[in-house]
Design brief:
The complex is a heterodimer of chains A (about 290) and B (about 280). Chain A is mainly alpha-helical and about 290 residues long. Chain A has helices spanning about 1-10, 15-45, 50, 65-75, 75-110, 115-125, 135-145, 150-175, 175-185, 190-220, 220-225, 235-245, 250-285. The two termini of chain A are about 20 Å apart. Classes of the chains: A mainly alpha (about 290), B mainly alpha (about 280).
Chain lengths: ~290, ~280
């Protein structure tokens, strides 16, 4: 933050009216950006008659929990919530660990095909997930994983790995080689260096990358739709949400209440990692 | 050794499916073959010639490219402009805007899609009331439906660009800017000749990431236009492939579309790699 103040100071501070105009527009844009979320929460609390009114008001005088009751009263909504948490949680942890090891390998060791491997990781990011749904469907069927959470976890790990490795590379690279040498001279073993020195140092990077894998796992709609075909007890939140959304006659209150419930964990996660995220992205792109 | 888990996972769940995808695209593979009722037959390029002679495919391809292009350009423009704006304001407005953007970023695609639909709902949405549009339906017309999806996509993807570019600007050492200012460079000059070149690697990264993400938009189109719009007017390649495969059980045709997408994104990747190399970056 202090650097920003520096920027303003050295690069002639914009004149007062300009700065005020900039701040006013920043606040205005923030309002516009936040408006959909506000409307979502608001609609979730509006009583049924008020949502479906032709005179929508940006407030409600009679907040009600009816929509939430409807959502949680739906069969096993809590279970879907837990399912989603299990999927996203395992994807984040497993892919972070695997990516950490792989990123260490590609930045710390020189070996044949290293560059080829890196390019492959990059190319792997471009693979359209949806296109692979078809072969993955058959793979999951072969493994007997259809209708289990495993069929959602495994592909998500695979798809979040390349990006995670690519991003973590920068963080591992930023740790000076001298540190590694010093650790060995002090008698640290390789695994001790890896887990007790390198791991804490690149942890901010891990957090930044885990944001991406968490979101993609939490949001996943296509795999859930394609692989969980008959056993609805294994469904995840996006599917549960669409139960309320029927294109001809959507239950807007229910949709918005379910949406709110679904968005909150991600928001909490974001707020927790917010500070690390900004520095993390900065570190990753600086290289 | 450290690489083993990554390679196993990627090999099994990425490389092998791609191989299978390619394989399926050369065979006749429909519901009959899946259930084992009929043997799979080799079709060679049959699926591809069927695809390329289908006028709907070309239309979908064109709208995918145009739609993704529009999304990328708008996302980058909004994201960069706001990143610059962030450097011009004091801490409080900056925090507020940052939080709002993080909120948009955190919103799951399914949720975002339904919320934007409600906002633009012809009967109950506030947007039509504010703009005085009566019961104008946004999802009815082809362009306006695409425009609505575009707004949602930009809304949930500009924060990544904004935060990254902002982090990049922050990482520019103040000595450099100080030196430029002492040498008598104007603000505009500093932006153009100092900051832009220093930010180029970051701009490349966010551009490529946006291209990849926006080219693959699935959930938004699927939810907001109800699976591709009226008579498939809002289909993009991704949704088209999905519909062919899982709705019409033409798995091989869907796979062929997947291969086409894969090749197009591969081309983008190659461009990216060349750019990286030209910047003299070591992998």
């Amino acid at each position: 933050m202090s650097l920003l103040r520096g920027l303003g100071g050295f690069v002639r501070r914009p004149r007062r009216p300009w700065r005020l105009a900039a701040e006013a527009s920043a606040l205005l844009i923030a309002v516009v950006v936040a408006f959909p979320l506000y409307w979502m929460v608001l609609s979730a609390f509006k009583p049924a008659g008020e949502i479906e009114s032709s005179e929508p008001r940006p407030w409600t005088l009679a907040p009600s929990l009816d929509s939430f009751r409807r959502v949680f009263g739906q069969q096993e909504f809590g279970r879907y919530f837990v399912n989603s948490l299990v999927v996203a949680g395992s994807v984040v942890i497993v892919s972070a660990l695997i990516a950490f090891l792989a990123a260490t390998a590609v930045t710390r060791f020189r070996f044949r095909f290293r560059t080829t491997l890196l390019i492959m990781f990059l190319v792997a990011q471009m693979v359209p997930v949806e296109a692979l749904t078809i072969p993955l469907f058959f793979t999951m069927r072969g493994l007997g994983l259809l209708n289990t959470l495993g069929s959602l976890i495994l592909p998500q790990i695979a798809f979040s790995l390349p990006f995670a490795i690519w991003m973590l590379r920068g963080f591992v690279k930023a740790v000076p080689d001298a540190l590694e040498e010093a650790a060995y001279i002090d008698g640290a073993s390789r695994s001790r260096f890896l887990w007790q020195i390198l791991f804490p140092l690149v942890f901010p990077g891990l957090v930044a990358t885990s944001v991406f894998s968490f979101i993609s796992a939490w949001n996943d709609f296509l795999f859930a739709k394609s692989f969980i075909i008959s056993d609805t007890s294994q469904s995840t939140l996006p599917m549960a949400l669409l139960v309320f959304y029927k294109p001809d006659d959507p239950d807007w209150g229910g949709v918005m209440a379910a949406s709110t419930v679904m968005t909150i964990p991600v928001l909490v996660f974001f707020v927790l990692v917010q500070r690390r995220l900004v520095s993390g992205l900065g570190g990753a792109v600086k290289d | 050794m450290y690489l083993a888990p990554a390679l196993v996972v990627l090999g099994g769940l990425l490389v092998y499916p791609i191989y299978q995808l390619g394989l399926i695209s050369f065979f006749q593979y429909t519901q009959a073959q899946v259930s084992g009722g009929e043997p799979t037959t080799f079709k060679g390029f049959g699926n591809y010639s069927e695809l390329f002679s289908d006028s709907q495919f070309w239309q979908v391809l064109l709208s995918t490219v145009l739609f993704a292009g529009a999304c990328v350009v708008s996302t980058l423009a909004v994201g960069c402009a706001l990143a610059v704006l962030l450097t011009r304001v004091r801490a409080l407005p900056r925090l507020v805007l940052m939080l709002a953007a993080l909120g948009a970023w955190a919103t799951p695609a399914v949720t975002g899609s339904t919320v934007w639909l409600l906002l633009f709902d012809p009967d109950f949405g506030p947007v039509n009331r504010i703009l005085g549009l009566g019961d104008h339906s946004w999802t009815y017309g082809r362009l306006s439906a695409f425009f609505l999806v575009l707004l949602e996509v930009v809304w949930c993807s500009f924060p990544f660009v904004m935060v990254t570019v902002y982090a990049g600007i922050r990482a520019v050492p103040s000595e450099v800017l100080e030196a430029a200012a002492l040498d008598g460079a104007s603000q505009w000059r500093i932006w153009r000749s100092v900051l832009t070149p220093m930010l180029r690697p970051i701009l490349t990264v966010v551009t490529i990431q946006s291209v990849i993400w926006d080219f693959k938009v699935f959930t938004q189109i699927y939810v907001m236009t109800n699976g591709g719009g009226i008579a498939g007017q809002n289909l993009v390649l991704n949704v088209y492939a999905y519909q062919q495969a899982f709705a019409s059980s033409k798995y091989s045709l869907g796979s062929a579309i997947g291969v086409v997408m894969l090749l197009m994104l591969l081309a983008v990747t190659l461009v990216y790699l060349r750019l990286l190399r030209r910047q003299g970056e070591e992998l």
